[in-house]
Amino acid sequence: MPGGRPTRLTGPTPRIRRAPRAATRGSVAERTVPWLRVAAAYAWRLLLVSAVVYGIFTVLGRFQLIAVALFLALVVTSVLRPLADLLNRVLPRPLSVAVSLLGSLLIFFALLALVGNAVAGESGTLANEFRGGVHRIELWLQRPPFRLSPGKLADLQDQVTNYLETHRASLLSSAISGLGRVVELIAGGALALFASVFFIHSGERLWAWARDQLLPRDARPVWDRAGHAAWRTFSGYTRGIIIVAATNAVLVGVALLVLRVPLALPLTLLEFFAAFVPLVGSPVALGVATVVALAGRGPLTAAAVLVLIVVIGQLEGHVLHPLVMSWAVSLHPLVVAVSVIAGSIVAGVIGAVVAVPFVSVVWAVVRALRPAPV
User: Fold this and answer.
1) pLDDT per position as a tens digit, 251-293
2) Alpha-carbon dihedral of residues 227, 192, 245, 354, nearest 10 degrees?
3) Are residues 367 and 302 in the same domain?
């Protein structure tokens, strides 16, 4: 009322709570540089994952022969397991495993015998062709743009001969160590065959035993799902790369036969096995075919093989791999290239072969372990 006394609040005066300065400063810092906090969180996780991967590769490097043998056993299992399951409908399980393994070995050795017979049958003709091919290469090097004189070519041949004579002892020791590697390869192949028998016969029981013995009860369903996803990815990649390699080998074999390149059948087999190294193996095998074509048929045929390298490379990179591998793995080509180079740095040719399926399996496990969105 006008002229009256001002009223007073009878209750306690409310106090405004202020945040502590440290919290305020922290929130201001988080709002100022959020990328630094996120980068630090990702950094220590990446360091931890890198340390684990380095430890795994270090252990595998110590036991390289065993690791390679088990990898080959898994490859054989992914290829022959469907055949064994199909034969199991009419045959007992042990007999179906034996038939699938022995039949595959017979086909493989028959193919090697066919290649050996082809090389032995053409040995005399090939020797004459290669002598003439070397002479044609010398004449080609004497023309523009190289313009190498016959004296320089003779000096180069003398240097190669002197090198072989001087380093005869080291070459002999390398050959002897190579024989030791052959013995190791035989032992690794026997181990791979032995492991393949058990993987094809009862691989799921081995997985169930390892899961029940190593994992706690609550974690078993999740890791069981991850294991099945890893096997689907690995077997799909293996079958897909076999399809790609077989297609490349057929195309190369037909082209080399049409061009009448010497050793067409061995070069076709080389192309098949080289295609297991993505992005690198096929060009290397076709490079060898180019050298053989240059020595055996001349520069025009070698140029045709070079064109073949470009065409098959484009076909493999833009048609075969996207069509065949899309249902098996979903990796970007950049990831594939980095994986192949990193694997070759760590373990040479074996690392280049194993790198892509390893990365694919790890990615499948990560996706399987990721919690489903609510």
Assistant:
1) 888 888 888 887 788 888 888 888 887 767 777 888 888 877 8
2) 60
3) yes
- The answer to whether 248 and 275 have CB atoms below 8 angstroms apart is yes
Q: Find how far residue 133's CA is from the centre of its chain.
A: 35
Looking from the CA of 214 toward its CB, the CA atoms found within 13 Å total 8
DSSP, res 218: G
**If you compute the radius of gyration of the chain from its CA atoms, what whole number of angstroms results?**
32
Please indicate, yes or no, whether residues 188 and 306 belong to a single structural domain of this protein: no
Q: What is the DSSP letter of 217?
A: G
* 302 and 209 within one domain: no
Sign of CA dihedral 284, 289, 291, 294: negative
Count of other CB atoms within 10 angstroms of residue 314: 10
What tens digit of pLDDT does each residue of 132-175 get?
666 666 666 666 666 666 666 566 666 666 665 666 666 556 65
Helix axes 333-369, 64-87, angle to 10 degrees: 70
Higher pLDDT, 181 or 148: 181
Examine the domain organization and report whether 228 and 336 are in the same domain: yes
Please tell me whether the overall predicted TM-score, pTM, comes out greater than 0.85 for this model: no
Q: How far apart are CA 260 and CA 187, in angstroms?
A: 39
Domain identity same for 81 and 177: yes
Answer for the pair 77, 196: CB distance below 8 angstroms, yes or no. yes
Q: Does residue 271 sit in the same domain as residue 190? A: no
Q: How far apart are CA 95 and CA 233, in angstroms?
A: 28
Give the N- to C-terminal CA distance of the chain in Å, as an integer.
61
Residue 267 CB-half CA count within 13 A: 24
Neighbours of 59 (CB within 10 A): 10
247 vs 253: CA distance, rounded Å: 10
